[in-house]
Amino acid sequence: MSSFTEILIASPLKDGEQWVIRKEFSYYVDKEGGDVITVPAGFISDYASIPRFLWPFAPRWGKYGKAAVVHDYLYDTHEKTRKEADGIFYDAMVILGTPPWKAKTMYRSVRMFGGNAYKDHSSYIVGLKKTMIEIPELAEDVCFTDYKDLLKKSKF
User: Which of 22, 20, 47, 23 minimizes the C-alpha distance to 144?
Assistant: First the structure.
């Protein structure tokens, strides 16, 4: 059976939109072969990328928070195809107790509108890592745009 084995520990960055994952956590996918997706400490996520006008119905985080971070990680790294990443997102939401109507709606939304995020915004394509090399003690004082600028200057 699919499962998460650790709690999600994250801190907001200065912009309040992006969060840095403070402790590695894993999701075990219920497939033959025991696939494990491990999101490293330092990965940066915005949780669920939901338009603001829909937040009353589906805020950026909720029961599905861990699923959204795993989904962001898979979109960023391309460890899975987009279809596989979206399916894992759906399964993880269900495991976390997201109401079925909400899980289906969010799944359909990423299937319909997630193509550009997968194709254009992954670190694989643009050459930027969304994982901080070292987690600064005061990561809350950094926003993702500042971090991208630092990476560009360091030619990482």
Answer: 20
Examine the pLDDT at 130 and tell me if it is beyond 60.
no
Find where tokens 């500042």 sit.
Answer: 146
Q: Which residue range forms the structural domain that includes residue 62? A: 3-154
Q: Which amino acid is at 128?
A: L
Indicate the residue type of 91.
D
**Straight-line distance from the first to the last Cα atom of the chain, in angstroms, rounded to the nearest whole number:** 39
Distance CA 53, CA 144 (A): 23
CA 116 to chain centroid, in Å, comes to 15
Structure token pair of residue 18: 């992006």
Predicted TM-score (pTM) of this structure: 0.77
Helices (H), 44-143: 65-77, 82-95, 100-113, 115-120, 123-126
Domains contained in the chain, number: 1
Q: Averaged over 104-109, what is the pLDDT?
A: 90
Helix (H) or strand (E) holding 39: strand 36-39
